Amino acid sequence: MADEVKKIIIEIRAGAGGDEASLFAGDLARMYQRYATKRGWRFSTLDASESGARGYKTLVAEIAGAGAYEALKQESGVHRVQRVPVTERQGRVHTSTASVAVLPIVEAKAVDIKESDLEVTFSRAGGPGGQNVNKVETAVRILHKPTGVVVGSREERSQHANRERAIEVLRAKLYEAQQLQAVGSVSELRKEQIGSGDRSEKIRTYNFPDDRITDHRIGKKFSNIEKILEGNLDKIVEAFTGTTVK
User: Fold this and answer.
1) I need a surface site. Which of 51, 81, 186, 219 has the fewest CB within 10 A?
2) Could you tell me which residues come within 8 angstroms of residue 128 by beta carbon, excluding any fewer than 6 positions away?
3) What is the tens place of the pLDDT at every residue in 48-96?
C-alpha cells in the first residue's frame, strides 16, 4: 500500500502536561511541516485548535508527496518530552506528551460513506483569510454517526472545499479502522495507534537536558534535538526504512 499512497493525514494532539504539552504538540507540528518542505511535499493544515502563541491542543494536516506515508507512518504513537518549560521558574524538568496519528488517504471506492450517516454543521472559520472567512460559515464539522468519529476542516475558503477535505479525513480514519478490524467506536482505533496519551505509553522520548532522542521501539538514540525539530528527520526515517533519504 505504501507505494500507492500519495497523501496522508497527520493528526497531533497535546497529551499529559498542560500548557507544556500544547507547546510540544506545536513543536512536533512544525517539525513535520519543515520536513515536508525539505522533501518537496505539500503540507496543508486542515483544522487546528491553538493554545497560546506556539502551541496546539490539536492539529490535523494533509501531507501530499511521493513516499510521505512510507517515511512517516512510524511516527504514529505517543511522543514524550523532558525539558524545563519556559514558565518554570525553579528550573525543574517536566515530562509532557503529545500523540501523533498518521493515516493514508484512500480513494472514495475504498470506503462507502452514506450521506444518511453524516451529521454536518457549519460555522465561521475565523483567523486569517480576509473578511470572507469571518462572515461566511465556511468551517465544517462532520459527525459519522455509526462510529462517533468527528472530523473538521476550516482552512479552505469555501464551504464546499472544506466539506470535501473533511470527508477525506473521515474516509482515511474509517479505512484505518477497517484495516485494524476495530470494533465499536473509533476511540479503539486511536488507542490502537497512540494509546491513551499517558506519559508511560511512549514510542519516543525527547530528552532536552541530555540532548538525546530515544526511539523505544528500535532502541536507537539520536543527538541534536534542536536540529531534528527543525525538520531534519532523515536519520530517524532511515533507521526505520533501511534506505538512505535522497
Assistant:
1) 219
2) none
3) 888 877 899 999 999 999 999 999 999 999 999 999 987 777 889 999 9
Among the four given CATH numbers 3.10.310.50, 3.30.70.1660, 3.20.20.20, 3.40.50.2300, the one describing domain 7-108+188-241: 3.30.70.1660
Residue pLDDT, tens place only, 94-118: 999 999 999 988 777 778 888 999 9
Residues 17, 23, 27, CA angle at the centre, nearest 5°?
Answer: 125
Q: pTM surpassing 0.90?
A: no
174-232 pLDDT tens trace: 888 777 654 444 445 455 544 544 545 689 999 999 999 999 999 999 999 999 999 99
For residue 38 the three cell numbers come to: 525539505
